[in-house]
Specification:
Keywords: Membrane, Transmembrane, Transmembrane helix, Transport. It is a multi-pass membrane protein. InterPro entries: MFS, MFS_dom, MFS_trans_sf, Proton-linked_MCT. It is found in: Cell membrane. The protein is an all-alpha fold. The chain has one domain: MFS general substrate transporter like domains (Growth Hormone, Chain: A, Up-down Bundle). It is built from 20 helices and no strands. Helix 12 packs parallel to helix 19, helix 14 packs parallel to helix 17 and helix 16 packs antiparallel against helix 17. It is globular. It starts with 9 loop residues before the first helix and ends in a 5-residue tail after the last helix.
Length: 421
């Protein structure tokens, strides 16, 4: 294995490739799905709660498959896994355009969820953890920020496409476009480890002491998965994942929320694009802040910041300027799902068995999807507004700040017991 002598490290090229893959998967398919809720339910006469159950089915599949995903990534060629995944994810999304019954969404949400696990959840954090032994916060922040750039373009584009060409054409065109772009990126640029390119991870020289073996020990510092899963810190992290996902899931309902307070689908698309600007700024800010003041303080700050857009949505949703301000700030909170989740996992448990711990804790993401997404839909269906949902978001933001504090108290217990090494 050769050392990287040049200033430019291949890891940064891989980071760009991974970021584009995750960005297109999330913004072209996952997040964009919220723009289809109102037009599909209105066109087909489906209740919002019944329709959003397909998110719940996808979350159940995710919860079941996540533990398997970590093992598959460790066993098989990452490029093969990701190519199959994007075909499942984008292909299923395109198939929605041919459906006339809610059962079509229920059926195709299954393969879509399996593909999404690897494309939007697992690949980014695992690959960054492999390639970056220093500057993880910056790398993850950049990944989510690049997603924000793409989202700021994709969301308004999809909104206009739905308005001008209809939701069926938009589903099909989006699914095909995402697959056509991502597959070559995977083949050309994605590699699981630096060793496959004859390189060392970014920052390896900064953690070396006297020789390579000591560096390996340093970079593998942390807690084993078997110990972590029994700790209070893990349960607090699981709760954090559950709640932050529940909060971020409201982004799927922002389009119908905006239309419910008097805006049209084009404005809703523009609003979701503005949210992605917030994702961009938030990801960069939280990544840098995490490196400067730690993941704990950054996470607490992010949760308290989230109270601002909730207050605006509750009090002056009809004010376009403030609505956009709230949307941008809410994008900060959405970005924390992609940045703070992985960074908190590393801060709490190290990287000794990161992928096993993260994939298990991330089940909290899936559990939240089972409950929150259709739950918000049913609240809207039964009450005609999202008011109760917004109050629930405020409570969850405060609870999550408390969970972060509890998680790091749990880490101190592990350190005192000599289990963190």
């Amino acid at each position: 294995m050769t050392k990287q002598k040049n200033k430019f490290h291949y890891a940064w090229l891989l980071l760009i490739a991974v970021s584009i893959m995750v960005a297109l998967g999330k913004n072209g398919i996952s997040t964009a799905g919220g723009l289809y809720l109102a037009p599909v339910t209105q066109d087909l006469g489906i209740g919002m709660g019944s329709f959003t159950l397909y998110f719940s089915i996808a979350s159940i599949v995710t919860m079941i498959f996540l533990p398997i995903a970590g093992k598959l990534m460790a066993k098989y060629d990452i490029r093969l896994i990701l190519i199959v995944s994007i075909i499942l994810m984008a292909g299923s999304f395109a198939m929605f355009g041919f459906m006339s019954s809610v059962w079509g969404w229920y059926l195709f949400s299954i393969p879509m969820a399996i593909g999404s696990i690897f494309i939007t959840q697992m690949a980014g954090p695992v690959l960054i953890n492999n390639w970056f032994k220093k500057h993880n916060g910056l790398a993850i922040g950049l990944m989510v920020a690049i997603g924000g750039v793409f989202g700021a373009i994709i969301q308004p584009t999809v909104g206009n496409l739905i308005a001008n060409q209809g939701w069926r054409f938009s589903y099909i065109a989006s699914g095909i476009a995402v697959a056509v772009i991502i597959i070559p990126i995977i083949l050309l640029f994605i590699r699981m480890t630096p060793q496959q390119k004859g390189l060392q991870p970014v920052g390896i020289d900064e953690v070396k002491t006297s020789d390579d073996s000591s560096a390996q020990q340093e970079t593998a510092k942390g807690i084993t998965a078997s110990v972590a899963k029994k700790s209070s810190a893990f349960f607090a992290l699981f709760g954090f994942f559950f709640i932050i996902t529940s909060i971020a899931s409201f982004s799927q309902h922002l389009a119908p929320f905006a239309m419910g307070v008097g805006y049209d689908i084009k404005f809703a698309g523009s609003a979701l694009g503005a949210m992605q600007i917030g994702v961009l700024v938030g990801a960069l800010s939280f990544g840098v802040l995490s490196d400067k003041i730690g993941a704990k303080n950054t996470a607490i700050f992010a949760m308290l910041l989230g109270l601002i857009p909730v207050a605006i949505f509750l009090t002056v949703p009809g004010n376009k300027t403030l609505f956009m301000v709230a949307i941008v700030i809410f994008g900060f909170i959405v970005s924390s799902l992609g940045t703070l989740g992985p960074l908190l996992t590393t801060a709490l448990f190290g990287n000794k068995e990161y992928s096993q711990i993260y994939s298990t804790a991330a089940i909290g993401l899936a559990v939240a999807g089972i409950v929150a997404l259709p739950g918000y839909g049913y609240v809207y269906e039964f009450t005609g507004s999202y008011t109760f949902v917004l109050y629930a978001l405020a409570i969850m933001l405060i609870l999550n700040a408390l969970l972060v504090i509890l998680a790091f108290k749990g880490k101190k217990k592990l350190e005192k017991a000599g289990l963190w090494n």
